[in-house]
Each structure stands twice: as C-alpha cells, then as structure tokens.
Amino acid sequence: MDTLARRKKRTANIRRTMAITVMMLPGAIWLIVIRYLPMFGIVMAFQNHRPYTPNPGFFNNIINSPFVGLRNFEFIFFGDRAWNMISNTLIYNMVFIVTTTVIGVAIAVILTEITSKFFAKVYQTLMFFPFFISWVVASYFLFAFLEPTFGLLSDVRDWYMDPTGWPVILTSANLWKNVGFTCIIYVAAIAGIDPGMYEAAAIDGASKWKQTWYITLPTIKPMIIILNILAVGRIVMADFGLFWNLTMDSGPLQRATEVFDTYVYRVMISNVAGAADFATAAGLFQSVIGVICIIGVNALVRKINPENAMF
Amino acid sequence: MAKRKKFRMNKVSYASETIFHVIIAAFALMCIIPFIFIIIIAFSSAESLRTVGYSFFPTGTTMINFNAAFEMGDLLWRSFANSVFITIVGTFLALLISSMYAYGLYRSNYPLKKFFMFLMFFTMIFGGGLVPFVIVIRNLLGLADTIWALIVPMLMAPFHVIILRTFYRTCIPESLLDAANIDGAGEFRTFFMIVIPLSKPGLATIGLMTAIGFWNDWWHALLFIRDRSLIPLQFLLMEMQRNIDFFRRHAAMIGATNIDMTELPTQGLRMALAVIIVVPIAFAYPFFQRYIISGMTIGAVKE
User: What is the DSSP string of A254-270?
Assistant: First the structure.
C-alpha cells in the first residue's frame, strides 16, 4: 500500500515535470534558434565564407567554407577608421555611464525631497516620456532644431555637415532618453530606505546634505553597482539607433559619430568581397570583449564586496 | 498634526526646495519640449515656415500637413496596419512564451530549473553578433520579406522573463499551487486558472513594454524587409527622412542650393507623421506608466 502510494506520487511528479517542460519548450526553442544558432555562425569569422554550391544552406555553407585563420580580424585593427570607431565607442560609453549615473542619482535624490507628491509625479511622468520614443522619432525631434534651412539652431552651423558639437548632442540625447528610466529605479531604491534612519540622523543634527552622503548614497550603492556592471559589460556595444538615426547617417559626421555597431552594419551592407566575414569577425570581437568586461567587473566587485556582485 | 509637523521637520528649507523645483522642472520640460515643438511645426503654415522657419511661435497655422498625411492613402494605412498587426500578435505571443518560461523558473521543485535558467542567462552576456543573426533569420528560417521577420526576433526578452519570475515569487504563494496540485489540477490548469489571473498586473507591465517595443521597432525592418507593402510605420518615417535628406545633400552637391525647400511636398508632412506616430503612446502613456514603474521596480530592485 505504501509503495503504491509512493509510486503514484512519483508518476504524478514525472507528469508535472513533463507538463512544465512542455511549457518551457516555446521559449527554449526560441532561445536555441534565435540566440544559440547564430553562435555557430561565429565560425564564419575565421572563414572565407561562401555558399556551398551543391546544396547551399546555413550549416552546409559553414561546414564547407575554407578556414583563413585570423585574417578577417586584421580588418578590424588595420582597416581605415577602425581605431577611430573603437575609441569613439569606448569614450561615448564611458561618458554615457558617468553622466547617466550622476545625473540619474542627483535627480532621484532631488525628486524624493519634493514635498508635493503631485509635482513629483508630474515631473517623473514627463521625464519618463522619452524612454518610449523610438530613435527614429527622436531624430525628427532633433531635426526640428538642426535642420539646415528652417531649424531653430540652423544659424549656428550646418549641423549635419560639421562634426563639431555632435559628441555633446549625442550625450545629451542619450541622457534625454535614458535618465527617466534610471531615475525611476533609483527613486524606488531610495523609497525602500527606512525613514527612521533619516529621523534619527536629523535628531543627531545631521544636515540634509550629510544624510544624503551617509545614508542615501551608501544604501543605493548596490543598485548603482548592478546597473553599472551591466553598462560596463556593454562598453563595446553601442546603441545603433542613437548613432545611426540622429546623425541621419551623414558621411561628414562619421569621424565623430561612427561606433562599433554602425561600423559592423556598414561593413555588412557594403559590397566589399568577404564583407559578411569581416562583419562577423567584428561582431565576435565585440561579444568577446563584452563577456570579458562583464566577468572582469563582476570579479572586481566581488573582491571588494561580495554582496554587490551580480553572479 | 504632530506627525505632520515631524514630517516637515526633516525636510530641506523652502528656499532649497524652490531651487529643486526649478532644476527638475527645467529638466522635465526639456524632455517634453521637442515633442511639443514638432506638433507646432506640423501645424505651421507654409507661409510661416518661409518667414520664421521652424518656430515655437508660427505666424500662421494650417491643417494641410495632416490632411496630406491622411491622403497618402495606401502607403500610410498599410504600414499602420502592419504596425498594429505586429504589435498585437507579437505582444500576445511574447506574453504567452515569457509567462510560461518564467513559470518553470519559478516552480521551486521543477528539476530542470537550473538548466533553463542558464540557457537564458548565457544569452544575456554573450551573443553571435549581427551577421550570423541576420543569416539565421534570412537564410535558415527564410523569414526575409515576411511579416514574421518583424515578430519572431522579439518574441522573448530574458529581462522580461526575470521580471515576471520575480513577480510570481512576490505575489503568488507556491503553497497555493501545491494545494491545487493535491486537489488534482494539472500544471497547465494551475498555470492558466491560478497563475495567469493572479499575475495580471505583472503581465500588464511586460505586455505594455513589449507592445511599445513592437510599435517602436524599425531595426528589423531595416534588416529584413524590402517589400514596401510590409514596412511598419516607424520604418516608413525613417525612410522618408532619408530620402529627403539624400535629396537635400544631393542638391547641395550639384550646386542647386537655392531650391525652395517649402516646395518639397513632405517637409511638414513628415513632422505630421511623426506626431501621428507618437500620439497613441503619448495618450496611453500616463495611464500605463504606473504599471511599468511598479513592474520595473519589482524586477530590478528585488532581483
């Protein structure tokens, strides 16, 4: 009787496991096809990739193309403008990380000091709005100011022909779109702080400034670190839409605005022989640096304070 | 009363708070002003454009740009229909896939949990890059120039799955599901009759974020769509901008600099289109932002 009950329970368990696995399947298949299969395509980075004429197909092409070692990677390091776009990507991302964090935290702190809940909510609503605007539409917003004939700032210079000022424009645009989101996360983190701490500090005579410095910032530090681990891990990835749409893909601006993702795309759609291999190599380089960065930063954080590490 | 006084006690001075208001109001206005600006431009008359250019204070107003936009006929309506279709179908499928995947990651006694978690997590830190992705969608799946090329690539977002799992964890006690199991309900029944109804706020959050992602997508159209009858609104807008810009640069190059830009039929029309695209988001946004904020803070803070 006892064994029967146990067996019954075990079959029930197996049936439950099967049922849940069936539920996982659509997602798992999606992950494998859309995220993992392209990883096999990485092989192309080391190949002179070409269609396998007897029976062309994703796998056949990969299996039958000759290997060329690291030749495709030379393109990244010795190609024209390559170092320029790599340094652009790194500098833009570092500036983005610092500005978004500093301004995001500052605004979150200020927002929580606003007594009127109504105003705080209105401000937050307005600041979050750009997050929902695509870069295509944002490029129209910018165009209204910079358009060479009618634009509000058209007298200053021919913006789409002159790279001067674009680093500032792109940094501002990035802030404009993303600060609202960052700010909301920090506001939530600040809202989770026990108000008693502030009251106790105030009774002991701590100024508001001191409270921010010694209570608010240390408490939200883990949040700041997690968001920045992710950001540093993406330091070689650029927001394609930002750099492609806002600049209208204008040639004269490229020196100041070309970044990794726009470069890869440009190589991919170009007619150079082996363009796809070069672009794959560039993409692989980007992914590998990304993984190294994310693991490195995480290890560093773990060393300093294990609790703040992401994994 | 005493409580209120104490509350006010640990506050910045009125002077500082006024300064805070000014700073943050200025920033908040900067976030919304570009949108207001293109609305004004879209309503500005050609006469006004000629005399004062794009201005916050046009000398005359007109409806002509919006009329022209609606007279674009097929091109506009078709891309509008495409955008609506991919948004609705995509959001529905994405919600179904993500909520089921999150369910397995949430059930504590599901033995394959770790495996599926890793399967998803790994894709968050490593990827094959752009070209292999394009080849898989285009050659392996053969989705180029079909509407599915705009839907399939965005059907799952690991970040959303994590938010949903966290939502289940905080809002649905597992003992409830175990009780349902003991009463003889299978996993599917438990999921659809208990988990889905209980996680409506979480699903609303993810659904809205996904819907906006689909509505705003132009990237996959840029990669996969050549057929003009399949392009979504965002891509239509992007293409129009490019064509005009190309014309302008080209005109400058061949020396025809004194072309009257107001003669270009789509100058104000494009601004009107941009307004038409943003309006659904702008109107729905104040209502749904509450859901999005609560969902994001649950997913982000508690993870």
Answer: HHHH--HHHHHHHHHHS
A38 touches chain B (CB under 8 A): yes
Residue spans of the domains in chain A: they are 2-64, 74-308
Q: What is the CATH number of domain A74-308?
A: 1.10.3720.10
CATH 3.40.50.410 applies to domain B72-303: no
Q: Which of B131, B150, B283, B294 to mutate to test the interface with A (most CBs of A within 10 A)?
A: B131
| Residue B173 distance to chain A (closest CA, Å) | 18
Query: Which residues between 217 and 246 in chain B have a beta carbon less than 8 angstroms from any beta carbon of chain A?
Result: 217-219, 234-235, 237-238, 241-242, 245
**Residues from chain A contacting residue B281 (CB–CB below 8 Å):** 132-133
Positive or negative: CA dihedral B47, A245, B155, A125: negative
Q: Measure the CA–CA gap between A266 and A275, rounded to whole angstroms.
A: 9
Q: In this structure, what token pair is assigned to residue B301?
A: 């803070």
Q: Which two tokens stand for residue A176?
A: 């404009």
Angle (CA) A64-A263-B252 rounded to 5° is 130
Q: Is A274 on the interface with B (CB under 8 A)?
A: no
Residue B98 in contact with partner chain A when CB distance is under 8 A: yes
Give contacts of A140 with chain B, Cβ < 8 Å: 38, 237, 241, 270-271, 274
Distance in angstroms (rounded) separating the CA atoms of residues A153 and B8: 45
Q: What number of other Cβ atoms are within 10 A of residue A169's Cβ? A: 18
pTM for this entry: 0.88
Q: How many residues does chain A have?
A: 311
Partners of A276 on chain B (C-beta within 8 Å) are: 131, 135
Instruction: List all residues 6 or more positions away from A149 whose beta carbon is below 8 Å from its beta carbon.
Output: B53, B261
Taking an 8 Å cut-off on Cβ atoms, the answer to whether A185 and B300 are in contact is: yes
Nearest neighbour of A265 by CB, restricted to B41, B97, B130: B130
User: Are A137 and B103 within 8 A, CB to CB?
Assistant: no
ipTM over 0.95: no
- Which tokens belong to A114? 């606003």
**CB contact (8 A) between residue B130 and residue A283:** yes
Q: Which amino acid is at A70?
A: L
Going residue by residue through chain A (311 aa), what tens digit of pLDDT does each one get? 567 888 888 888 888 899 999 999 999 999 999 999 999 888 888 888 777 778 777 888 888 888 888 888 887 777 667 888 889 999 999 999 999 999 999 999 999 888 888 999 899 989 999 999 999 999 999 988 988 888 888 888 888 888 889 999 999 999 999 999 899 889 988 988 888 888 899 888 888 888 999 999 999 988 888 888 878 888 888 999 999 999 988 888 888 999 999 998 988 888 787 888 888 998 899 889 988 988 888 888 888 888 777 77
Domain boundaries, chain B: 1-62, 72-303
